[in-house]
Design a protein that fits this description.
Blueprint: E1 8-17, E2 20-30, E3 35-39, H1 46-52, E4 63-71, E5 74-75, H2 83-89, E6 90-93, H3 104-108, H4 110-114, H5 120-133, H6 137-140, H7 153-165, E7 171-175, H8 183-196, E8 201-205, H9 209-215, E9 218-223, E10 226-232, H10 233-238, H11 243-249
Parallel strand pairs: 3-8, 3-9, 6-7, 7-8
Antiparallel strand pairs: 1-2, 1-4, 4-5, 9-10
The structure holds adenosine-5'-triphosphate.
Length: about 250
Amino acid sequence: MSKKNYKLEAKSLNAYYGNFHALKDINIAMEEKAVTAFIGPSGCGKSTFLRTLNRMNDYIDGFRVEGEILLDNRDIYGKDVRVDELRKEVGMVFQKPNPFPKTIFENVVYGLRIQGIKDKRVLAETAETSLRQTALWDEVKDKLDKSALALSGGQQQRLCIARALAISPSVILMDEPTSALDPISTAKIEELIYELKKDYTIVIVTHNMQQAGRVSDQTAFFYMGELVEFSKTKIMFTSPKHERTQNYITGRFG
Ligand SMILES: Nc1ncnc2c1ncn2[C@@H]1O[C@H](COP(=O)(O)OP(=O)(O)OP(=O)(O)O)[C@@H](O)[C@H]1O
């Protein structure tokens, strides 16, 4: 039997904020071009784990990890890994849309500018492609030089996704990307996630069980820093193995 190649794997991963043991021996393997949802009650470690996947926690004083996170079979905490290269490969979208106080165009091409790309044609083409991928092009094509801050919250979030896509990542991490949005904008982002998984591996933290059920292929349930259960979403929501998972997904505690 050939060994399956996973896009992202955690092996015996432990994470600490100082003395606080935030993630306890996490082992998980996520498939390529699939959506994995992280669910669990507040404070269980979902965001901490998500942020270890592109080393966003490196900035936090006292934070450390043990174990391995493999991206395409390579440990992202390895000595030879350049964090700037890693972040190009693993993009991130946050809970609150966070466009820069710049034009719509400059927001999308921001990552390319940082890379020193100046070619106007490359910038324009990338901006259009990324905005089309997030279904925003028709809404903004006549106002690319206007401030991104004038867009609606939902449009801003799609712009932030376009900004992440512009630097051609293969993985996109989303930390509760719709929790600040209205139902229509939420539906648009969910449709977008569905489209994007054809080309990208997506990991999403969500508090919304229906959302996890709608958008994800696999779901991981965390509780107090442990990964309690990980399975195909359909199985998790119809026949969870653990009572704690069952209680959480049926809303008995949260
Ligand atoms: N910067 C930090 N310094 C110290 N402890 C932290 C820090 N960030 C998170 N923690 C702690 O780590 C634990 C996990 O937090 P984390 O934000 O990963 O949980 P979460 O499941 O994403 O929660 P929520 O759903 O509320 O966002 C919590 O006990 C939290 O207090």
